[in-house]
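Kindly go through the following sequence and its backbone structure tokens. Advise at your convenience whether the structure tokens fit the sequence:

___
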Amino acid sequence: MSEDDAGEPAPKPHFHGHRDRLRTRLREHGAEALQDYEVLELLLFQLLPRRDTKPIAKDLLARFGSVSEVLAAPRRMLLEVAGVGETVADGLKLGQAIALRFARDGVRGRDTLGSWQAVLDYCRTAMAFEEREQFRILFLDKKNQLIADEKQQTGTVDHTPVYPREVVRRALELSATALVLCHNHPSGDPTPSQADIAMTRTIVDVAKPLGIVVHDHIILARDGHASFRALKLI
């Protein structure tokens, strides 16, 4: 019922005042003034207008650890959290897609080597929280600007098959003159394995005679990243 027995409008649920205060803080001070669970609350407000979303936001963070990991979590795992249905899962995955496009826009049209933090941010957004290993390649032109970003392979929790000649063939198709290789370690440890090192050196050896440079191979994980260039592995 929308009115009580006296014909007066029913009182608003207790969380409406909290929502108004959060929105005011966002408008006046920006998102930096909000805690992580409050950022999620604001998103969930739009998806669940008649629910108190603070408990759901806190449960999501307790389950996954951070806003980034909530957005990157597999749909099936999101649906295991109380209060999360298909509508919320759709909204969270849309949030992930927006974050990925925002990060990608920071790389496009710029000298990749001169915008290295933007490259790392994009790769982390795209891969760091995936459950299975993925192998991606950033194809660059002579100005080190991004031509294409492609996911080449998806493997298991600890292995992705990579075929060096296929990597180089695709680079030639795109007229790329440089590559940045990226893959993730779902274990959380970005330390390169001996197989990672051997595979990377094979790609370098196949690409070099064709005038294609491998600038770096980045391994992304929840606990950070590893750069083959910084480790002097290439």
Notes: Residues 111-227 form a domain with the Cytidine Deaminase; domain 2 fold (CATH 3.40.140.10). The chain has nine helices and five strands. Residues 106 and 118 are 6 Å apart (CA to CA).
